[in-house]
UniProtKB/TrEMBL annotation:
Gene3D superfamilies per record: Jelly Rolls
UniProt-recorded name of the protein: Quercetin dioxygenase-like cupin family protein
Source organism per UniProt: Rhizobium viscosum (Arthrobacter viscosus)
PANTHER family tied to this protein: PUTATIVE (AFU_ORTHOLOGUE AFUA_8G07350)-RELATED
Signal sequence bounds: none
Domain Cupin type-2 residue range list: 40-102
Top-level taxonomy: Bacteria, Pseudomonadati, Pseudomonadota, Alphaproteobacteria, Hyphomicrobiales
InterPro entries: Cupin_2, QDO-like, RmlC-like_jellyroll, RmlC_Cupin_sf
């Protein structure tokens, strides 16, 4: 394996469900070991509850405060903090602010970046395109569980 350097201009960008993903390291650069991407998440938004069956995940919050739903518990994460999400644990998050949030995500092993690239390029939407989203998610070992009741 060789050292892989990616400049900001080399990132692969895709937008899915309002979140802009900038993929800096993927399976090709890491020989399948990890994926790293930066996300800009719209204010008060985030994914539905889901489970990664294949990857462990670390999310490092850069801007704004996030709320994480982890197997029924809600935890607030401030900028500069990171959270480890082991594979197999139902989770979700949202930006708990009136401004867009920014975070870096690290997934191991690599490969899930291709889910975001395909979902974004196909412009799939939840819940409108759920059969196609579920088919794609199944291919990547993701299980969607539904929306979070944030109780606000």
């Amino acid at each position: 394996m060789t050292i892989a350097l990616k400049r900001p201009s080399d990132k692969q960008y895709v937008t899915w469900m309002g979140t802009k993903y900038g993929i800096t390291v993927g399976q090709r650069e890491s020989a399948g070991r990890m994926t790293v991407f930066e996300s800009v998440v719209p204010a008060h938004q985030g994914p539905p509850i889901h489970v990664h069956h294949n990857e462990d995940e670390v999310i490092h919050v850069i801007e704004e405060t996030y709320e994480f739903w982890l197997d029924g518990e809600i935890t607030r994460i401030a900028p500069g903090h990171s959270i480890f999400l082991p594979r197999g644990v139902p989770h979700s998050f949202r930006v708990a602010s009136d401004r867009d949030g920014r975070n870096v995500t690290i997934l191991t092993p690599a490969g899930l970046e291709d889910f975001f690239l395909e979902a974004g390029n196909r412009q799939l939407q939840i819940p409108t395109d759920m059969p196609a989203v579920m088919e794609l998610a199944t291919r990547f070992g993701i299980e969607f569980k539904g929306p979070v009741d944030w109780a606000d």
